[in-house]
Amino acid sequence: MKTLQDYIDKLNALNFKEMYNGDFFLTWEKTDDELEAVFTIADALRFMRENNISTKVFESGLGISLFRDNSTRTRFSFASACNLLGLEVQDLDEGKSQVAHGETVRETANMISFMADVIGIRDDMYIGKGNAYMHEVVDSVTQGNKDGILEQKPTLVNLQCDIDHPTQAMADMLHIIHEFGGVENLKGKKLAMTWAYSPSYGKPLSVPQGIIGLMTRFGMDVVLAHPEGYEVFPEVEAVAADNAKKSGGTFTKTNDMAEAFKDADIVYPKSWAPFAAMEKRTELYGNGDFEGIDKLEKELLAQNAEHKDWACTEELMSTTKDGKALYMHCLPADITGVSCETGEVDASVFDRYRTPLYKEASFKPYIIAAMIFLAKFADPAEVLKKLEEKSTPRVFE
Amino acid sequence: MKTLQDYIDKLNALNFKEMYNGDFFLTWEKTDDELEAVFTIADALRFMRENNISTKVFESGLGISLFRDNSTRTRFSFASACNLLGLEVQDLDEGKSQVAHGETVRETANMISFMADVIGIRDDMYIGKGNAYMHEVVDSVTQGNKDGILEQKPTLVNLQCDIDHPTQAMADMLHIIHEFGGVENLKGKKLAMTWAYSPSYGKPLSVPQGIIGLMTRFGMDVVLAHPEGYEVFPEVEAVAADNAKKSGGTFTKTNDMAEAFKDADIVYPKSWAPFAAMEKRTELYGNGDFEGIDKLEKELLAQNAEHKDWACTEELMSTTKDGKALYMHCLPADITGVSCETGEVDASVFDRYRTPLYKEASFKPYIIAAMIFLAKFADPAEVLKKLEEKSTPRVFE
Amino acid sequence: MKTLQDYIDKLNALNFKEMYNGDFFLTWEKTDDELEAVFTIADALRFMRENNISTKVFESGLGISLFRDNSTRTRFSFASACNLLGLEVQDLDEGKSQVAHGETVRETANMISFMADVIGIRDDMYIGKGNAYMHEVVDSVTQGNKDGILEQKPTLVNLQCDIDHPTQAMADMLHIIHEFGGVENLKGKKLAMTWAYSPSYGKPLSVPQGIIGLMTRFGMDVVLAHPEGYEVFPEVEAVAADNAKKSGGTFTKTNDMAEAFKDADIVYPKSWAPFAAMEKRTELYGNGDFEGIDKLEKELLAQNAEHKDWACTEELMSTTKDGKALYMHCLPADITGVSCETGEVDASVFDRYRTPLYKEASFKPYIIAAMIFLAKFADPAEVLKKLEEKSTPRVFE
């Protein structure tokens, strides 16, 4: 695209009315138009930043982040997105705060939101918890806004839950769109979302689930590959199958990594923990059975160790389409001989794809900003137009 | 009120010259006009935000927060207030900083203040310490400004000390004013500030003290109720008595919760620690006698347990004016059967008053912003006028 | 100086083209013109702030801080500098982040920099590490920018490394320039950078090294004094000697504190750890030999204790030029009888110089802002001019 007007025209052809004052939980709760609106706004915001046009649409306001798990990239992506739009990030650190002290979600959600325009939450540790917690927060602030407690309803952005990792999957998808020169070129492309061995244990399921839940919507042939016992949520597999049918693509499963890589256009090899084990872990945690958790973790590590052959090797890469499949990862990857003895990917493969991998990550701040933008403005296209007319430089000139 | 001009007219009828370049330590150090100016600016800032008029009066500048105690609501209230005016919050975390490393208050206060317009401090843990510390900080930066070290004198906002909790009490009062339709309607109203049982121990005295020190200034009949042995600072009781005399109200004390609730228009049942015990605790802490502190805490918990009947029950509420007294709390409350087995208030009472309770809290960011605003501008009314003329939207439109 | 034009004229007489898109690692990697440009911009930014002219040149953008060591003043100086220019500080807390989790520097540097205009790093703990790490970061983001991953190349500001502490030394120098009424008055002045006893162990070498590496460039007679065994990096001594030759000053060394103080115009008495010991410590740390580190620390404390006579006493001060040498310190100082039993300086000396000491520190935020400013604008003088024409007030008026 060459001008902002191109993005605006594209937006004007889409229906995303429902996103105004909405939230972003799961990609499969959004229509195709709505997802395309996110991609379009993300590209438009990037275009404007590259052309030194400020996209600061808030004179004041807070973007609240709540991370129940360590995070560098997601933390900085959220901070960057908020800052790009003019919101100041305030981290709700439950160590510092009184959430730990028996305060209800409903109360805390309102207490922190008096001047909050956005709440970003990462809560991916326990099955059945993270997404539910996010809904509790949204219900609380929606009610608070109705009751006249909050002058605005903060928008929730799911920064990773137990079910989906929408900002990751959307950034990954936007990367694919750019690499392949447009959504229209994805039909019939083969994408392999495969498990890979990592010495670390219990990586979230939300990445593979997010990928199969989203990538199946663009007419691609999506293959989910993992050793027996590493199943993901059945509900999400059902979503993927349904998406594939609608989009004219396919969704298949295999326990054979080589089969998944064969002639693949895109490969996404990554470790995750078995759904069943995560459920058990959640139950043990609920019962405060930490001895049981230790025991479970040892079992899982042993189980993982039986699948060290699940690695993205040069040999496997050579079996992909022209030996040149696009290698993807949410990062950080466990690189054999670099970050661990045996890991998800060969060092030479990772190095060859380093630049595309970093570009893949670079879309996330814009995806988050776009999700916020679409929730805050009834006519985002009009806002982009006015911002261009105003043309306040991001960096003084 | 309907227009900003109404607030401006009200301000122009008040004398608050002394607040310019001043600080906010204790409500009873301020004149009635000064307090009314805070309420008026708070309402005006809220009015402007509701009408999407930016009140960003700082292009740059820091708002420094120093919390010696955990805090969600106060932390976010301060952050919201600073952000609303254009100041960026920097938290002086004494863990991270070198304060812990034997640096003097005077030095630290200057070192962090080169570009600080506001310093908000919460230091309520030890009798005779918090307020004194805040004065040390203010004396240091005032001298630093005189000596040409600091280009501006940061304003101190007391976010809770050992004596008063002015941002809480003022927010509570503004809530009362709105609930009763104006200060003029408060004369003769009965307010019961009563102790209530909580399983937790050692809650600060600054809330009840802040309430009796402020609420006695509006012609109300303020009753302080607590079991024997739960006295608050005598000095603050003296302030309350004196206020009541001047305002044409009353200030009485009782050891009978029922008597306090009888026909009350407003009830504020909340746990706190006995003054004498807090003094002893401070002394033990000073001597590093942690064994002694443990012992004291056990004694206090035992003492508390003798007063589980001090609870805000439906039965007690039914004895209030028309059974409909305004129930207040600074939150979080210890709710019987919710956050604890036996607590300060019945769940059904708390639930019925949830919305007003949250609204009560919603005033705090505006109260803090108003305190800053009044300290920074010689003619705040004029500034409001100009902001309205400029009418920069808070959210782009 | 009276008008902004004076600063602009001065800038226009200097050559600092190379600073555009550059970084700031070590003062001796910069030309005299480049250093003078930093001083001039720092003074200009301060002049503008004092005259309530906003110097906010960024509408959005992040300033990332990474502190490998505790810090109050440097943390707040960096935050103040970023805020003054319109950048929001995001702290990369390696506790919170995944840096600790085996993520490579190259990857992290890119992942946090998508919208970062500045990265400030303090990493002074280990010999041969800090400065090297900073270069790794800069190489990573420079490559990332070349590869189209980063839309801008963040500027690195060295907030203290194992070799130099340029923001400290530059702030100290600007203080000297102001105290002596201009660089032109420094020729032939005697500056004594001397070791002093402190009960604490292992203070960084970067301060004395930064001082001798910078102060020798202005025609002063710089004396480095310390007990035998407290040598600093030989490479930096070589830099100092070379600077002195070029500037028409001198650089001498002595093991006699009195000799250094004799007739000195400026004294900078401060504790540091011996280079050799720091090297050994780094090696032990590398080998994870924590027992060895404990042993080494005990040895060093014992060694320090043999030199308690190395203190900035009234008696020694009386031997300086007219008994009135300018006393300097980077703060916090170990003050005899105040922060410790026996320390670097007599309480009466410290008290007499408190105001100049605090002023000395007050230059650091402006020095940091100037380093950023010079890296971000091809024609800083033009930018200052336009900011003056625009004259947006920092505080609304």
Describe the structure.
The structure is a homotrimer of 397-residue chains. The first copy, chain A, has 397 residues and is of the alpha/beta class. Chain A has 2 domains: 4-163 and 364-390; 168-360. Helix content of chain A is 45%, strand content 12%. The first copy, chain A, has 16 helices and 11 strands. In chain A, strands 7-6-5-8-9 form a 5-stranded parallel sheet. In chain A, helix 3 (73-85) crosses helix 15, helix 6 crosses helix 7 (206-215) and helix 7 packs parallel to helix 8 (234-247). The longest helix of chain A has 19 residues, at 32-50. Chain A is globular, with a radius of gyration of 21 Å. Chain A starts with a helix and ends in a 7-residue tail after the last helix. Mean pLDDT of chain A is 94; it is low at 98-102. Chains in contact: A-B, A-C, B-C. The interface between A and C is large, with 38 and 37 residues. Chains A, B, C: This is Knotted carbamoyltransferase YgeW. Chains A, B, C: Residues 212-372 form the Aspartate/ornithine carbamoyltransferase Asp/Orn-binding domain. Chains A, B, C: One of its GO terms (molecular function) is ornithine carbamoyltransferase activity. Chains A, B, C: Keywords: Transferase. Chains A, B, C: InterPro entries: Asp/Orn_carbamoyltranf_P-bd, Asp/Orn_carbamoylTrfase, Asp/Orn_carbamoylTrfase_sf, Asp_carbamoyltransf_Asp/Orn-bd, Carbamoyltransferase_YgeW.
Describe the secondary structure blueprint for this structure.
3 copies of one chain form a homotrimer.
Chain A: H1 4-12, H2 32-50, E1 62-67, H3 73-85, E2 88-91, H4 105-111, E3 116-122, H5 130-146, E4 155-158, H6 166-179, E5 190-195, H7 206-215, E6 221-225, H8 234-247, E7 250-254, H9 257-261, E8 266-270, H10 275-286, H11 290-305, H12 314-318, E9 326-327, E10 335-336, E11 345-346, H13 347-352, H14 354-362, H15 364-376, H16 380-390
Parallel strand pairs in A: 1-2, 1-3, 3-4, 5-6, 5-8, 6-7, 8-9, 10-11
Helix pairs in contact in A: 1-2, 1-16, 2-15, 3-15, 4-5, 6-7, 6-14, 6-15, 7-8, 10-11
